[in-house]
Amino acid sequence: MTLRRKTLVIIGTTLVGLLLAFFVLTRLTLLRRFSDFETQITRQQVQRTSTALQSEIDQLSTIVHDDSVWDEAYEFVQHLNRRFLASNFPTAIFTELRISLVIYLNSSDQAVYERLAGHPLDPRIQRELEKKILQPGVLLGRPRGERTVSGIMVLPDVPMMVAASPILKSSGEGPPRGTLIMGRRLDANEIHRLSLLTRLDLQVHGVDDPQLPPDFQKIQSSLSRLTPIATQPLDEKSIAGYELINGIDGQPALILGIRVPRRIYAEGKNAETYLMVSALVVGVVFSMVTLFLLERQVLSRLIGLGKNVAAIGARGDLSARVATEGNDELSQLSTVINRMLADLERTEQERGRDEERYRAYIRQSTEGIWRCELQEPLSLSLPEAEQMDHLYRTVVIDECNEALARLRGFGSAEQLRGVAVRELFHVSEPKNLELVRNFLQSGYRILDGESLEQDEYGHHRYFLNNVTGVVEKGFLVRIWGTQREVTEQRRLEAQLRQAQKMEAIGRLAGGIAHDFNNLLSVIHGYSEILLRRFSPEHPARKEAERVLHATERAAALTQQLLAFGRKQVLSPRVLDLSMVVGEMDRMLPSLIREDIELVIRSQPDLWLVRADPMQMEQVIMNLAVNACDAMPTGGRLSLETKNLQLDHTAARKDASLVPGPYVMLAVSDTGIGMDAETRAKIFEPFFTTKEIGKGTGLGLATVYGIVQQSGGHISVFSEPGQGSTFEIYLPRAEGKLEPAFEPPLLELAPKGSGTVLLVEDDSAVRRLAWEVLHEQGYNVLSAGCGEEALQLVTSHSGKIDLLVSDVIMPGMAGDELVEHLRLRLPGLKVVFVSGYASDAIPKIVTDAQTSFLQKPFPVQDLVRKVHEMLTG
User: Fold this and answer.
1) What backbone phi and psi angles, to 5 degrees, belong to 202?
2) Are residues 410 and 371 in contact, defined by beta-carbon separation less than 8 angstroms?
3) Using CA atoms, how far apart are residues 650 and 531, in angstroms rounded to an integer?
4) Which end of the chain has fewer CB atoms < 10 Å from its terminal CB, N or C?
5) Exposure class string for 218-246: b at 16+ Cβ within 10 A, else e
6) Does residue 130 have a pLDDT over 60?
7) Rounded to 5 degrees, what are φ and ψ at 683?
8) Cα(385)–Cα(43) distance, rounded to whole angstroms?
9) pLDDT for 318-336, tens place per residue?
């Protein structure tokens, strides 16, 4: 429906509603007012009619009073005189005065004269008259003060107006000699006379009249002493008024009714019709004028405004504006529309910028972003296997960014569009199959799900995927997702896990070596004591020498374990690694076979490093031995040193490498190489690929431990059949080249004296050390822990010259014990002993008052170290 039609309907409906409301209001107010006024006028006419009737009764009362106060009448009732009747009551007087009844009663209330005009006084009528008129309390027997009595009396045949007055002298004096009663019939003539007098259609009926008209019967129940007057409409043209007239005895006697035309009601109806027609004409005119003005001032402008807005919408030109005329609400609407268009234009521009930012984000994102549309929507009610098959068959790439194309080896995103996902995502890989199952089982949503693919060279590539399915009406119709490669991250995580594993194994190996060193110290010490006690010719000396030799071999093995665990004591110094390699050039030819070519390349001006030269020689030796074993049919062994400046890119390949200057030592061979599984385990202690009995499995573990303890890093590159390369990175050291340490010639330590406090948690080592030092002449106080040592110092009254303490002990460590003792014994000399080096040793061996002895130690080394500290 158009706006014009809606306006017409609204105006027409409003007009009809107003007319109906006006009609109801006129009916409820105006016409009712007319009806009430008509009723009021009718009641007034009824009262006027009853007043006219009362006037007739009063006139009759006047006649009776005049005739009763008369000397002749006074004489007549006492002495009957026919001349009085003949002269005063001829027949004509009845007609002239409309007297229907005359009765003279004497003082005994006996009728001395009775006459009913027009009716002979037959016995029946006479009895009825006497019964009605002469009954006491009606006309007779009234109080003395009452003179004339009048009213209506209903006789058997017709109602009658009657009046009675006592007969007195003309002077009004008494006593009364009788009563004069006169009556006037209220017959049709008299009623007609009253109708002419009042100009009303008058009807009078007795209340007990059996032939009472229907309208009188209907209204009779509404009349009473309290409401003697009532009205009722008889039809559209006439209305009737009624009044209940009481008789002379005070009882209802007559119903007086009048009929009057309904001129007032008719005027009201005419006024209602006029008003309705006038209202209709005014409403129609008003509606036409309103419609014209609305069309001219509102609708045409509003429709034009709508067409302008529709045209702007059709063109899509949000910069256009609608015309604004005047200063009314429509102009304000136009202003609002223009403001809305401006807001839409600004919003569209912002949306365009947002879309451009979104496209730029998609284009520049380093993560692959993609959207797949299912060629056939997937019903969610299908079993899981059928859903997987459906996805494998129908999912293709519909949209993606350049990052995904580069990630997947395509030249552009356009080349990747339309490619089936099954060509990029292989469910034959268990990890990928599990990813699809998780996608289906988790409500078609995956966060950071990992997939695995292989590149063209067969190398594994790891991807993290965020995938979200779009479900509409129980069907999967679209899949969004992002993908980023985490291959490098997984490689670094694997390296970290390997480093953590090696750290854990190193701690285990170091702990075992520490405890083993304690045992070896005891065996080695007692073996030395036995050898000193046995003469060269003693039969048991050879067995004791074998025990000592086996102990030294076991000590070398524990040194390898300590080296792997980075727990051995090093003697690092600033050195030139090319000099170490040069020394090995003289040693290695005697170790390698003749079918192996040795090639050594060293960069001139090689940077200095800080390391233990003896341990670096051990590293090169172990790597060379392994390389020879890897070339059973001969080959080439290469040693190379050069300077390297590692940046962040190179450092990212290995989490343990820090960017900076390094000296690299590379040991390469052309042997059989290693697979990935072997490469992952080569630095683990006791791992070997050699036959049983051909190796301890500690060679590369020792290399790993020495390099790590020296602050360096080792990497291996190897493939089956392509040889192996071990690269060792040692940080560049600042400072000058330090000369090699020349150990002094050792002599047997002489006997000594003084008090030595021995603290060792291992009881066997503590017992051995106590015996050796006691045999040398020292006073030895022994304790098993730091707390016990403090108690000994407190209870000992003499001087303590030297403390020999283990470094690592339960409870209080050796360095902590020294701090407590030096508070009590300033300048106390200390010899620390330990089976492996800890990070605390370089911090506590800081002055000439402190020294260190590595376990397992020969007993002479312990005696010599104690003697040096006491005499130094």
Assistant:
1) -110, 140
2) no
3) 57
4) N
5) ebbeebeeeebbbbeeeeeeebbbbbbbe
6) yes
7) -90, 0
8) 102
9) 788 888 777 777 788 888 8
